[in-house]
Design a protein that fits this description.
The complex is a heterodimer.
Chain A: E1 3-6, E2 10-13, E3 18-22, H1 36-44, E4 52-58, E5 66-72, E6 78-83
Antiparallel strand pairs in A: 1-2, 3-4, 4-5, 5-6
Chain B: E1 8-12, E2 15-20, E3 25-29, H1 34-44, E4 55-57, E5 61-66, E6 69-72, H2 76-86, E7 92-96, E8 101-107, H3 111-118, E9 134-138, E10 141-147, E11 153-159, H4 163-178
Helix pairs in contact in B: 1-2
The chains are: A mainly beta, B alpha+beta.
């Protein structure tokens, strides 16, 4: 089981959380000028990295806040945890 | 804080559990700043628990639930006016959730052993003391855990709809302490 450090509650067991998939996805704008291809890409295309994955997680059985986790898909190591709206941390050297 | 009569109790060596109804309200404020936190603290005569997972106790016990969200152990009616005055000019809302929760008081030297059977939360007094609180999964149910000043008593708040399940879980979990 992962031990996930919630930015508000500290380290908690994975069962208290839900994973919300890839983070930092930007909705294409303006909505009436977006091609079908770009819209489908926004909705369905997800990267599947071998290495650091930037994901959204929800502390559903805690403070019920969304936040970002940089998790290594090979080792499950959590390199960084940061709040929504904050930029991706600089993880050069571990990626 | 006046204690209401227990709806259900359980006693085992080193352990006493009592289920009670508790008045409860949820206060939500969108992105509160230091001024409104101070005003709330003054209105309730305590240091408002602005830090995550902290509890303050004055005439009313108040627990941090989420950024900009608190649980007040009082029905909405008596606290409505001081809250409205302190939050003037702020988008906020206060709802009475008394009917939605049950309070479980767990006391005795075995209370931490019992909690450990239902939750992975570290309840050791070194890291979880009076003045703190935590929301976690307890017996697969979302619970708010508040340690007591004495160190071997805890208050647990769960949804009322799980009361039957929690009661049954306590009965089963306390069995080993009778041996």
């Amino acid at each position: 089981m992962l031990l996930i450090p919630c930015p508000w509650c500290g380290p908690r067991d994975e069962i208290e959380f839900r994973c919300g998939g890839q983070s930092h996805i930007q909705r294409p704008e303006p909505f009436d000028a977006v091609s079908d291809e770009a819209w489908a890409d926004y909705l369905f295309t997800r990267i599947n990295p071998k290495g650091v994955s930037y994901e959204r997680w929800l502390h559903v059985f805690g403070c019920r806040q969304w936040f970002n986790v940089a998790r290594d898909t090979r080792t499950h190591e959590i390199h960084a945890v940061y709040r929504m709206g904050e930029p991706k941390p600089d993880l050069r050297g571990v990626e | 804080m006046g204690e209401s009569t227990a709806l259900w109790t359980l006693a085992a060596p080193g352990l006493a559990i009592a289920e009670r109804q508790t008045p409860a309200s949820v206060l939500r404020i969108r992105r509160p700043d230091a001024a409104v936190i101070r005003a709330l603290g003054e209105a309730f005569g305590l240091s408002w628990p602005a830090a995550p997972n902290t509890v303050a106790e004055g005439a009313v016990r108040i627990a941090w639930l989420a950024p900009g969200e608190w649980l007040l152990f009082a029905s909405a009616e008596p606290v409505g006016e001081p809250v409205a005055t302190a939050c003037e000019g702020w988008l906020h809302h206060l709802s009475d959730v008394t009917a939605g929760y049950r309070l479980w008081r767990i006391e005795g030297p075995r209370s931490r052993d019992l909690l450990a059977k239902g939750a992975a939360l570290d309840t050791h007094p070194r890291v979880f003391r009076s003045g703190q609180c935590a929301q976690t999964l307890f017996a697969k149910v979302h619970a708010l855990v508040i340690p007591d000043r004495s160190g071997d008593a805890f208050d647990l708040l769960t949804d009322v709809s799980f009361a039957g399940h929690v009661r049954a879980w306590f009965i089963d979990a306390a069995e080993e302490f009778r041996a």
